[in-house]
Amino acid sequence: MSKTINEKLAIVQTKFKSKKSRFNSFGKYNFRSAEDILEATKPYLLELGVTVVIDETLIASDPFPILKSTATISDGTDAIHANAIVGIDLDQKGMQMPQKFGSASSYGKKYALGNLFLIDDTQDSDASNSHGKTTAAKKPVLSGDALEKAKAAIKSGKFTVADVQKKYDVSPATLKTLK
Description:
Blueprint: H1 5-15, E1 22-24, E2 29-31, H2 34-48, E3 51-60, E4 66-74, E5 79-87, H3 97-117, H4 125-128, H5 144-156, H6 161-167, H7 172-178
Antiparallel strand pairs: 1-2, 3-4, 4-5
Helix pairs in contact: 2-3
């Protein structure tokens, strides 16, 4: 009896092993890349008769570009998809524009694959490393409805930009739209 796509994905999810073959010399930790994850899935592709692909779509451009990465496992008949959403920081220093998009693309692919294959990111230093920065308690990122409400509150004089920044993590690009 042939296995369903759910059963095939469950096999990959439970047997999958991907080494952290990359080293971040700035943060002093090992991590895995999208390429490492894809390489680790290759033994299962022929064995289970599945393919894995990643598609990317630009889903927003204002106030900054947002990429949606979709990882898909398919047996030719059925498919299962997992997504990751990544914003591109256009104000990031030290990178040319193609590098900013490439970095966000790589990050999105890695996390879409991680979502598909249930890679526990809490074990990855990339998820917990502060890259030498000390941080206070995490504030929610200002986006979506909260962003629209913040704009309206600032415009009406109810709140200032500083008030919003106390409550939310505001990216440089979003900050420009608030001022």
